[in-house]
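Forwarding these from the shared drive since the link keeps breaking.
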Amino acid sequence: MYRTCYMIRYVPGLEEGKAMFLYFVKAETSTPCGLPARTVLTSYYKSPHFKCRARDPFNDFTSPDQAILCYDSNQSMYCQLLAGLIHRNKVLRLGAVFASALLRAISFLEHNWPNLCHDIRMGNLNATINDPGCRSAMSIMLSSPDPNLADEIEEICSCSSWKGIICHLWPNAKYIEAVVTGSMSQYIPSLKYYSDEKLPLVCTMYASSECYFGVNLKPLCDPSEVSFTMLPNMGFFEFIPLGDNRTFVMDLNEDEDEDVPQSQLVDLAHVEVGRYYELVVTTFSGLYRYRIGDVLQVTGFHNRTPQFRFICRRNVLLSIDNDKTNEEDLHKSINVAKKLLDPYNALLVEYTSYADTSSVPGHYVIYWEIIHSTSVVDKAISIDAKVLQECCIAMEEELDYIYRRCRTNDKSIGPLEIRVVKLGTFDSLMDLFITQGASINQYKTPRCIKSKAALKLLNNNVSACYFSPRDPAWIA
């Protein structure tokens, strides 16, 4: 409702066309007592609220419900893209929940557009789509061949460059809607490339599984300037002060699970502009003073309602899609994997990580410096590739449920990669940070690299790369 009101104000006429939103459900599980457990978005897509959206012309989607509710993500993606291409001239806005999902769709389209064009040209759905709901819904859309439309799409997709492909395929689109704040900001350059920087990147709301928090009252602003106005009717919001620009980083490193005295909590009416806070919420569904883990900065007020900029998640190092890998989880997975080096007298002396989103899907990159544990003269060591590949899969098996689901079921994260670097690389990394102002007395190897200069140093010293040989175990 909030999103509808404010987008119509800034972009009139949206009810006259369709929205190509790519939505996907996740597989459900059951609790020990038999209650169904599923993500909040899956629950919403299966609810009457979503199914009855056709009454609202603003929510006229290209994707049929059957395609959205298909558990096979590849079949769902294929049918949703096919529906979007069939209605390409009616699409006024497009997007996904997260920017990563939209880029994944573009990558999928790049590999499958010939088949999609063939379906449109012949008026028949590809035989590999065997989900009954998808076949039923798409057979209605493909009621007759449309060779002219197929030719248009083929001409666009067969170009040597896909710069601006979104605007070419959906020429009437007015904006792209997706979460592009926080860890999703890493995908902004790619979205700008595929839209040729002609479409605004709109982030309309701030929400989580626990609660709906706020809306962006200036949806057409640059992603770097997005602030969310909190909605006090959605829950009771309190905040843990994290300081100002000088001190909030230090506070961020404190134990997230430690108890915070009630006297330290600040309510919504008493936050201060420019200061950083961790969000605490009490909800109508029963959460009491629940620490969301989000770090926010107050940017101003709308009337008397505070506005916040999302800064980051506490203690999250790596994130590609829905995954949130913190330092502790990464360290545990490293400890399990490095034991596989013991029989070869190899010792892992240092490591760091990086979320590589230069390709779709993105994947975790782990930099390892390994030495010979028993040789004093020559510490360089060569290890069989299969051993390092097993280290990759050992790490993935140890990471949490959400990561393994994204890797195995959703295919939204690529195989984990270990890049072995030359001896002395991490000493050089330390020297680099010291020249940039770090204290030699307080220096600690960063467990996730953000600096372009640091990444360049690491990559220039890579001696070998290894990938997970298979998907990690995951049980729906």
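-- next protein --
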Amino acid sequence: MKLKAGIIGCGSITRFRHAPEYKANPFISEIVFYDRNPERAEILANQFAGSVAQSLDDLITDPTIDIISDCSSNEFHSINSVKALLGGKHVLCEKPIALTLEDAEQIVQAQRTSNKKLMIDHNQRFTRAHQKARQLIERKELGEVLTFKTSFGHAGPERWGINKSNSTWFFSKERSGLGVAGDLGIHKVDLLHYLLNDQIEQVSAFQGSLDKTGTSGEPIEVCDNLVCSLKTVGGRIGTASFSWTYYGEEDNSTIIYLTGGIIKIYHDNKYPLIVMDKDGAVTKYQLETIQTNDKQTNSGVIDSFVDSVLRNQEPPVTGEDALVSLKVILGIVKAAETASVVQVNQSSGKVETKKV
């Protein structure tokens, strides 16, 4: 059986990740592209031997299309993904799932109503180094997790975006909403939940627009750097840094400190996973390098999404998973804005501010 895929939005995430991964998947028969700028859709349709939908409604109502990637900008996810799900399509939505809890919950409810698959593109779960690290932690091969630190930073979305300029929508408060927190930070929050099999429940943070400027030369409307402290339900504590101003080299590393040693992930260019026990013995795993903006490799996301549809299985990153991570990111941003410690209440769907 083969599936026909549709893609909403024809920016860089489609050009470099979704489209080539659909094209390489043997179970995809064709890709149909839609963008508010028809020329962008035409370019990618020609590049990937696909076709163009003249409108969003044409894409969603096309009975031959089985699955849709929502690669629109952040503020449109709650519109496009809901329409696609209720239109009978399985949906892979780019992160963050939405900009508000209310909008995210609408997408999750649309999935429940439609009974279609909904997967969110938190791609860090799919790297072999992260999967192996989770396995080591689950098996308690180095004891219990105590603390952690993680970082995700690069030179900024304007270096990779389709316009290659500071006019990128990522710098707009209305469209990006959460700045580097929603672009990079939410990936690492999801990763920590995945690695630790735990949830972050308390946060504090600092954020700033330290270097990026918009088209007028003024500092951008959203944060380009954010540093936070995190505490999980299980009592683990750690730090996280997210940045659009790592100009020399991209950093996508994580260190987990356990009672029996240390797990280092993506700290070494040759060995993506290094394990050191408390007696100093070192094991180095020569796995694949992580995907970067400058080095595009198959993320595994499209293959996993297609597989979940064909096998009628729950996707590995559900809408509920993404909602949990969004609550944490909104809590982190609130903590930075209010100089407070914020309690993330997953059961009620709210974030509560605690005085420092």
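The chain has a mean pLDDT of 94. The radius of gyration is 20 Å.

- D.
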